[in-house]
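Quick question about two entries, pasted in order.
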Amino acid sequence: DVTTATVLIDTIAPAWYEDDENKFKLGGKAYNAENWYKATSLTAIGFFNEAQNGSGIKEISYVIKNAGGEEISTGTVDPNRANGIAKFQQDIENFENNSTIKFTVTDEAGNSSSSTEFTVKLDFTEPAPVMYDVDFTSVDHTNGKADKTVKFLVFDKESGLKEDAVSFSVGSKKNLNKDSDGVTVSITKITAENEATYKSEYKGSLESLAGYDLLSVSLNAEKYLSGLSGTLGITASLSDNAGNSWSGTVAQIELDTIAPKVTLSSTSPSIYADEKTKVNKIVTLQGTASDSNTVTEVRLLASANGKEKLYYLTNGQTITYDSKNETSSGGISYN
């Protein structure tokens, strides 16, 4: 008797496979070495190609190693078919920041593919904003006529601030961003090289600003500030490239349309009963400036004999005009 046996020889190993429609995905997005994630468990979807007349895929295995190269996890995944383009989908745990995962496929004939490796970067920390020139709890004032600019710093050590995701709310106006009418947003990365440029206006306590992003948002007065009532909070919504988010108040502004009240009086005796400021020699003026908010500046324009001088006054300062003392300032002096 003669027994006939068919022997199938398979010497071709399965291979990792990708095309325009079949891309390796990790954590729900097409893999890119620059991707960041915020979870230690991620869903992996990938593809291997085994010849149609091959022995068929037997096993897909993976190994995860930490940034130091130490093995921290292994496992196997099942493909949806043995031959052709085989897809696998598996929830994989134990990822760490800068860990790597390698996939290897073995067919029934014992042929193994070369290992395909991917690096996984994790970030679990939300962006951290801090004050730049004005404390977040301080109330700043505006007359509603000039555009308002708010600046603050943001630190995100790992994945970095996602610039396209920065938005603001001003009162009832929500989701304002760099593309909104009347809103200008700029983001500057502060480095050791350009730090000195921004340190001069900084009012906080950080020793170094290197590594921070400086965010600046300018609001058009007519669109966003006129007609305010009470204190208005400016809220920022920030996200990093891993998807961690932060939202909170970065500035408080209040509309003030009433000008400071200034009063002047003369302490010099008058030679005219009905006109107190007419004297025969020296006139000394005293005055006050008051406002519902803080008076930031008092200016006095004094003129005598066709000459003028502008004074920036401080508390307790006295202005004196001596008509007998003709100087380059027109006889005006102050102490």
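Here is the second entry:
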Amino acid sequence: RYFVSKALDVPSGSEVEYIDQLGLLEIDHKGFDNLGVNNENKFVAYNKSDTSVAVLVDKEELSNILSLEDGVVYDFDDADAKDQLNAITLKFDRTDFSKKSYLVIRGKYSQWIETVAEFTLTNIGNSFDDWVDQKDEASGNKWRQKNIRQGVSLNVYLKKNNEWEYVGSHHDAGSLAMKNLLMTLDLENDGSPHIEIKLESAYKIWEIDYVGLTDDWTDDLSIKQLDFASARDQNDQDVSMKIKSTDDIYQVQDNSGTFIELQAEGISDQPNTSLVLHGSGYYDHLREYEHKANPKFVTHINSTLGIQDVSRELYFYKTIMPFVFID
């Protein structure tokens, strides 16, 4: 079988990919139908619950949309949420689930996030290189906390004793492909007949196709690392040694049309198995701006509702007021 790293095909002059290591995992679901990744970045196999149908509080028309995994998505597009992040509240029947269950979300970053990002970089202007250095030096935890605060992460809350309790967030969703994202929930009964969950995102930053609960799951999985029979780039050059291990020896992809074609061997034909391509590396944005940064914009984009405001106003007006778009 062949695996082409299409996600690494980038527009000329916009990004450079530095690929350090690539690998392929074969995961046996142990008879479960679905495979996902939990908030601790561990694989979990699970079955969907037949009774796991959420009723969306104040948005009942979305209940059918989110109860089916069919490509019809909700993208947190409530334009009236101006003093807070976009959010939806889901309600489940508590008697259907055990105390230790998973919240299952099939979701991803939206394509729109790239428009918001490009608009932001343009307003950073010739301070772009300093901005990149500042982000590179920031701790991962500081970066994640800012993403939670601004709704770049998908945040999960559970209502306990009539108060919203923060459970966790899904960070760094990566490529724009749909993923099964799981969040552990402690459903200790507080006397309420319902389980209430709130999902929070900045305006149109996330898309979700399905939301449900399951207590039918296992993380005791059989995971096998497969070998690549070959790894060749667009020029038919062997790059297998460059991607074999994490060693700071990079396969560089700096133009549109560059790719790595991988051929794996030893793949099982057994049912209820999944193949997961994983890797490590980084990428650089390539931008050269001559205009100065827009200081009002930079100040606002770093505020709690900065991403929310910019995304909403940009979507409706294609410009930010009172912030001036710099051509």
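Reply: The two ends are 46 Å apart (CA to CA). The first strand starts at residue 2 and ends at 4. Hope that helps.
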